């Protein structure tokens, strides 16, 4: 289902679901990668003469309007990047949305306010979601699904809307899928997966699935401490998911059985308290002093991970190695990013956080094979789960 299947779009109102969920500091956008990634589809529709109505979410508001989650700053940035003003509707389906859409000329672009200001967007009740999707559908004549980062969500503007309008897959979703396919369909070997981020529980499905597929699994980030604890080590006040200890033990055993090299850090950077850079110090991973909190992988581990990545032909990385926002705890993430830029094969950086991390650390997008706009979505794809926003299109 490509855009061409929608036929002549001149003068037609085309609703596009994009993922414009960008990190904000107040109303300043700190990483506009997702907006940039959404431009080609929006521009193509505009160039085809469509009246383009972009739908998107920001954060996780509670289903009611909340100024802290307004898309207004995103509309401004989108307009700058497009080189022409974007009409912003201060509600999603109400009078403002209706009048903004009615006022669009051929080729013009509008952005509706955060779809999650409406409880119907994320409702688990099909009828409630459907009623909201009906209101959205009334604003358009066709639908283009281009928000790769949300295709794993069965939500009104992602899923239900596609059952109500002639629908097509946007170029971003198509491009993301074609790269991710190379990670699951006969990946070139060695295939190395690097996982970080704070929670083991977010990564269970993907570890489970990759234990039979990847050659090496490198683990850093907050989740590494639950693994260290499972191995019987002292972890001080580091992040711990007590209930995941048995799961970690099971993964360690299964990795051994499957011949998958599961690499854990041999040293870590600890501090007296979360964020306390002045007290940062490197200690052995099996000798974390009581009372200290682990906030990054250590230099020896960085070398170990870089060596494990050196001959990789396929790499998938999701989740920072440490609290990369602070210089004292950013070196592990920087080392992994640097190693990825030199791998001889395909390197994929997955996820909003990891993408923001590499950009914040000064790397350029084109140093990597692919930076995915999807965090949860790319993980669920690798887990082999069905993606409702994709399946509904076929
Ligand atoms: C993301 O940030 O991964 C996507 O925008 C999806 O957001 P969500 O996890 O709040 O659904």
UniProtKB/TrEMBL annotation:
**Binding residues for ATP:** 203, 294, 325, 351-354
User: A Gene Ontology molecular-function term?
Assistant: ADP binding
Q: Which residues bind (2R)-3-phosphoglycerate?
A: 34, 116, 153
What domain of life does the UniProt record list for this protein's source?
Answer: Bacteria
Keywords, sorted A to Z: ATP-binding, Cytoplasm, Glycolysis, Kinase, Nucleotide-binding, Transferase
* Keyword Membrane found: no
Query: InterPro entries in the record, alphabetically?
Result: Phosphoglycerate_kinase (IPR001576), Phosphoglycerate_kinase_CS (IPR015911), Phosphoglycerate_kinase_N (IPR015824), Phosphoglycerate_kinase_sf (IPR036043)
User: Which residues are noted in the entry as substrate-binding?
Assistant: 19-21, 34, 57-60, 116, 153
- Main localization of the protein described in the UniProt heading: cytoplasm
Q: In which pathway does it act?
A: Carbohydrate degradation; glycolysis; pyruvate from D-glyceraldehyde 3-phosphate: step 2/5
Q: Where is the protein found, in the record's own terms? A: Cytoplasm
Q: Name one GO cellular component term.
A: cytosol
What's a Pfam family in this record?
PGK
Instruction: State whether it acts alone or in a complex, and with which partners, per the record.
Output: Monomer.
- The entry's protein name is Phosphoglycerate kinase
Q: Which organism is it from?
A: Nocardioides marmoriginsengisoli
Tell me what gene encodes this. Answer: pgk
């Amino acid at each position: 289902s490509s855009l061409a299947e929608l036929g002549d779009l001149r003068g037609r109102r085309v609703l596009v679901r994009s993922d414009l969920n960008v990190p904000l500091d107040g109303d300043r956008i700190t990483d506009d990668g997702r907006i940039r990634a959404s431009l080609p589809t929006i521009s193509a529709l505009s160039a085809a003469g469509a009246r383009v109505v972009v739908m998107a979410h920001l954060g996780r508001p509670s289903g009611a309007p909340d100024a802290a989650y307004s898309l207004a700053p995103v509309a401004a940035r989108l307009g700058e990047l497009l080189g022409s003003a974007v009409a912003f509707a201060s509600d999603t389906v109400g009078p403002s949305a209706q009048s903004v859409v009615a006022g669009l000329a051929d080729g013009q672009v509008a952005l509706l306010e955060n779809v999650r200001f409406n409880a119907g967007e994320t409702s688990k009740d099909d009828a409630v979601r459907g009623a909201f999707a009906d209101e959205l559908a009334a604003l358009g004549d066709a639908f283009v699904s281009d928000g790769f980062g949300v295709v794993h969500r069965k939500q009104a503007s992602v899923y239900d809307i596609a059952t109500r309008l002639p629908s097509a897959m946007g170029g971003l979703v198509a491009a993301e899928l074609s790269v991710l396919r190379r990670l699951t369909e006969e990946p070139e070997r060695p295939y190395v997966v690097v996982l970080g981020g704070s929670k083991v529980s977010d990564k269970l499905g993907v570890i489970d699935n990759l234990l039979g597929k990847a050659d090496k699994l490198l683990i850093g980030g907050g989740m590494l401490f639950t693994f260290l604890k499972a191995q019987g080590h002292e972890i001080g006040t580091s992040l711990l998911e007590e209930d995941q200890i048995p799961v970690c033990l099971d993964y360690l055993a299964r990795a051994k059985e499957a011949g998958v090299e599961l690499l854990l850090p041999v040293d870590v950077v600890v501090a007296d308290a979360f964020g306390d850079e002045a007290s940062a110090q490197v200690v052995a991973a099996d000798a974390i002093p009581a009372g200290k909190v682990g906030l990054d992988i250590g230099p020896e581990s960085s070398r170990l991970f870089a060596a494990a990545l050196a001959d990789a032909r396929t790499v998938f990385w999701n989740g920072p190695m440490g609290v990369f926002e602070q210089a004292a705890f950013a070196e592990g993430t920087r080392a992994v990013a640097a190693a990825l830029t030199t791998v001889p094969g395909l390197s994929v950086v997955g996820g909003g956080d990891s993408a923001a991390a590499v950009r914040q650390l000064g790397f350029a997008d084109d140093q990597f094979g692919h930076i995915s706009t999807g965090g949860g979505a790319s993980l669920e794809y690798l887990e082999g789960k069905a993606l409702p926003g994709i399946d509904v299109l076929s």
